[in-house]
Structure formats: C-alpha cells, structure tokens
Design a protein that fits this description.
The protein is of the alpha/beta class. It folds into 2 domains: 207 residues, P-loop containing nucleotide triphosphate hydrolases (Rossmann fold, 3-Layer(aba) Sandwich); 65 residues, no CATH class. It is built from 11 helices and 7 strands. A 7-stranded parallel beta sheet has the order 3-4-2-5-6-1-7, with helices on both faces. The protein starts with 17 loop residues before the first helix and ends in a 17-residue tail after the last helix. Bound molecules: adenosine monophosphate.
Amino acid sequence: MAAAEGPAARFEHMGLDPRLLRAVAELGWGSPTSIQAEAIPLALEGRDLLVRARTGSGKTGAYGLPVLQLLLRGREAPQALPQAVRALVLVPSRELALQVLRCLRRLAAATDLRVAELGDGDPAALRPVVAAQPDVLVGTPGRVLAQVTARSLVLRHSLELLVLDEADLLLGFGCLEDIKALLCHLPKIYQALLMSATFSPDVEALKELVLHNPVRLCPAQAPLPGPAQLQQLVLRCGTAEDKVLVLVALLRLRVLRGRALLFVSSLPRCYRLKLLLEQFGIGACALNPELPARSR
Ligand code: AMP
C-alpha cells in the first residue's frame, strides 16, 4: 500500500464529514494512500477524474469517500432531494461489486446513506433492490441497463455521480455497448470518476464518452515486489512429458505451495493439463477467452 507523503496527506485535512472520518479510523486507515491523497480533494471540488489505479492502491476509498461526502453534502442542502439513486458505481464483475459494496457500506456505516448492489439473477427479481432507492447503486453495466430499460430504475432526474471502476476490465469484458446505452439514460450533467489500471487507447476513448474536462491522475504506484520477495527459478526439461512430470512433482511434493497460476501456449494444452492434474488429485480450473466473462 503506497501511503502518501507530506504534512497535507491526512484524512482529517480533507474536509470529510466526522462520520466518514470515524469509519476510516475504524477501518484502521491511518493515512491516505497516494491515490486517495490526490483524488479525494479534487473529487470534492467537483472535478471529473481519470485515475490510473490498480487493485490494492486504495482506489475504492479514493472514489468512495468523496462520493459519500458529496451525497451527505447534498442531503444537508436547504432543498434536500427526495430519496433516489444519486451515485452509480459500474464494475466489471459481481465479485468486484460485492467487494465495493462491502467497502462502501463500511465507510457509510455511521451515516444514513444507503448503499446497495444489484446482484445476479433475473432482472425482475432484482427490482426490489432498485425500488428501495439506495443512495449508491453498485452493479455491472448489463444489470443496471436491464433495470433502466425495464423502467424500474430511472436515473435521468437523480444521478449526480458516476464511477467506472476497473474501466480497462469493463472494456475487456465487452461492456462498452451497455455503457453507451446507459449513458443515454443519464442526466446531461453529472460528475464522473474513471478508475483504470491501464490507460489504453480504448480507455482514452471511453474517457471521451464519459468525462468532461477531467483531471488525469497517475499517482506513483507501489513498487512491484523486489528481489527479497520474489524468487524466479528456471528448470530446463528435455521433453514435454518431463515438463508435466516435473510440474506434478513440484505440486504434489508441495514445493509449490498455495495457489499457482500455470500459463500454457494453447487452449487444448490448457484442458489437457487441467485433466491431467485432476488425475493426480490436484484441483485445477481452466481460464481462457472462450469462457463467458461471468464464469471467468
Ligand atoms: P482497494 O485498492 O480499494 O481494493 O483497497 C485495497 C485494500 O487497501 C483494502 O483492503 C482497503 O481496506 C485497504 N486500504 C484502502 N485505503 C487504505 C488506507 N488509506 N490505509 C490502509 N489501508 C487502506
């Protein structure tokens, strides 16, 4: 975790609501990470942000804290708006949606803001989630779009904040068309925050669609594990069979412990290796581009 440096890098100096500061303390977040120190003040000023942030950088807090703060601010305004979905967080997968939900709920624990996740399943079965009008809704673009096109979710009059988390994965999982369709159902003006581990040309194109005059943030990333934490070994094998035998031995003798990622050069090899490992009682699953995004 890359902690931010300097005297200004303190949550207490960011103008955050005491209820959010309490939640931050309860989470044990002593000081903001680099990305949080840079993103939170700008987001609180109302700026659109394009942030390079990978998992583990504290990116959920970097957008979650300002989103919750801005919602609290809006709630305390003289003409408070009726209860509605005012912030939408789009994520590439259900797993990430649940992770984001947990983090945002913990940050919002001392407030009366409601955070919900759209979930899996039949769009009709998910209607009660949106009918409850949570302040923040987290979901994949496809699930959110299904609710919007079924008119069980109307965002045009209420949405103030849009977050695209792991934008590079959203695009990699083929969500671009759903995002474009969803944008047609949003109000003309909203604040948008786009987080992405990489700034590929596709992410740049998405930026043009979603963000207005954004500030681009590329905080210093925590260095990759150095030689002390990383060991690289090479074993030269004579034949393809030797390769498999050595691999099975390394796994069975627990030279390789915990989980392992095995890279192979083709799809048939992927399945052959999986079957072979299973024959030796080593649980394995295949991951390849032929699998639907959800099961991946
Ligand atoms: P994220 O990059 O949002 O997935 O966060 C990765 C992990 O860092 C989570 O376990 C967070 O609870 C934790 N985290 C986020 N912000 C901070 C912080 N300022 N100090 C310590 N841990 C943090």
